[in-house]
Design brief:
The chain has 209 residues and is of the alpha+beta class. It has one domain (52-202): Beta-Lactamase (2-Layer Sandwich), CATH 3.30.450.20. The chain is built from 9 helices and 8 strands. α1 runs antiparallel to α2 (23-47). The longest helix has 25 residues, at 23-47.
Amino acid sequence: MQRFILQQNIELFRRQLASQPDDSARRTLHMLLSSAERDMAYLDADEKGVRPRVSSRWVAGAFSGGSGRVAEYWRRIENSAHPYLLLDPGPGLHIVDANDAYARATMTSRSALAGRSLFEVFPDNPADASADGVNNLFNSLQIAAETGRPHQMAIQRYDVRDPSGNFVERHWQPINSPVHDDEGKLICLLHHVEDVTVEVLAQPRKQPA
């Protein structure tokens, strides 16, 4: 029932946006649409992920002391200065591991990330009614899983919580890539980000219409 209602609302808001000339009304519709799409992304991530569930033992074994091409791949990027996060593509989108650079960039720790659902750890900022980070990230992960190719997102505002639990404005350049085992089967998704907040905030802000 929840999925049906969300889908109906998303379609309704999109139709209304297509025919609404008033800027103020369009801003309200954009916020309503963002909220509905976010809730749908949360629901899809929790119930379906971006592919049928992969055995968690298989996923963990492929990267923790495992052998083969995938394990060697992770060992090369684990100590990279660039932030990387590994995700189980099954229901919940659980975090398999992250490197230290990712933990530092997102003001958390590897131990606090491993095993938890992606959007439980990184929800949208509730104070930003138009936040679309969750929906855009979920869609990108889905594209990478379905096509078998990396998907580069546009620069994305996606606020994260500081150690006190307060949301801090952050802008990222994300790339999501499928990771396959030695037999070519999708086993994980690799989420790579670069923090471009300083560059984005240095640009002149657009004035509201």
